[in-house]
Amino acid sequence: MIFIKLWYRFTGFLLKILYKILYSNSIRWGKSLHFRKGLQLTVEQGGAIVIGDNVFFNNYCAVHALEKIEIGSETIFGENVRIYDHNHRFSDTEHAIKEQGYSVAPVTIGEHCWIGSNVTLLKGAHIGANCVIGSGCVISKQIPANTVVRLEQNITMEEVRHA
Predict the structure, then answer these.
(1) Separation between Cα atoms, residue 71 and residue 152, nearest integer Å
(2) Given 64, 86, 88, 162, the catalytic residue
């Protein structure tokens, strides 16, 4: 087990160097960024990804920015999380979707959040501090701080404490 952890640290170190070379200042992270295998970070068209301190990405997460994606410190991600600050335009039936460009809006995730496995965050998502986003959710709007979002219903942290 210790060999696996050392391997993740080594390959993570190499990937961080590669991201610094490829993206220069377009991708910034604080101290102690940790991730397992399969992390994808992409920035195009002048976009930016800003990641706070002590953030953890589990296996096969992806963050794709054309404008800006900000992730607060101490936030953790389950497996297979996807974050996009853009979406294809598709209203013109005379042209192929791939030729219509993108609509964009920033994505913000507050500090101390837990984003569960298989969550997708879409353009315009704003998640307040101390939120839990349950597995399988798709978020494209504002989620207030201290909220738990589940597929069944949204509840506050106070409601969780009394459940």
Answers:
(1) 25
(2) 88
Q: Is 112 one of the catalytic residues? A: no
> Distance (Å, rounded) from C-alpha 66 to C-alpha 48?
7
Give 141-158 pLDDT, tens digit per residue.
Answer: 999 999 999 887 656 666
